[in-house]
Please model this.
Amino acid sequence: MPDELTQAPALAAQMKRIADALERLAPTAPRPLDLDSAEAYVWHAEQDGLQPVPKVNRIEIALLKGIESATDRLYANTERFARGLPANNALLWGARGMGKSSLVKAVHASINADLSKSGAAPLVLVEIHREDIPSLPRLLNQLRETSRRCVLFCDDLSFDMADSGYKSLKAVLEGGVEGRPENVLFYATSNRRHLMPRDMIENERSSSIAPSEAVEEKVSLSDRFGLWLGFHNCDQETFLAMVEGYAEHYGLAVGQGQLHAEAKAWAVTRGARNGRVAWQYIQDLAGRLGKRLD
Model:
């Protein structure tokens, strides 16, 4: 009996150490998803978590020139989704630097400005990186549990020969058992309409036993997007309208003749005329003038 009494404290201490070790090994309980701290988040697959974005890098929708038709269609689609009505996943494809990702972010901001006037909850913009597409089902499982309406956004989405992630994306967009959550809409931008390089499609056509079926498997991914918006290289008139819009918005006091001449020369050095080149020229001009672009 005395031996048992002397051993009891040591045994209790040992049991406590075991319990503490088991607690450290046990997975932590998932925290409830909080989408009230910001209007935009970035998904980090390795952490299974959403990081809030205090200030989204975007420009005002009125400054996007030469893409008015795409702007109207994407705004209308997003506005219907915000009201709880049916809306389509959207693929914005085409020329580089013509405002595809800028349009998604600008429409999100514009819709939320309208929602705030009526006191409605804002849309949440969630960005998922291209390399994290395989984790998309895990993200959707989290978003499915919230009542907030979310626009899921992937910029520069594309796949190569060795990438099978497109199969999981196809299932998530439409064909899976659970399907896309009703409170989630998927927007993607890409330089390719079919999200895959032409040589990848041609390789399937030349090497597959059933060429037509193999090609169909590859290109059918883009068919899962109900709304296609094409972006094309702009002409000089549209390019100069972009430059003028930026200069007026940011109060850059430069005569039209000088503005046009410098913008044309800048475009020649870049070998392109598009919204990105126009913005790069405006940044250079503002720096020379000592003006901040706030």
About this structure: The CA atoms of residues 83 and 115 lie 9 Å apart. The longest helix spans residues 2-25. The longest strand covers residues 184-190. DSSP finds ten helices and seven strands in the chain.
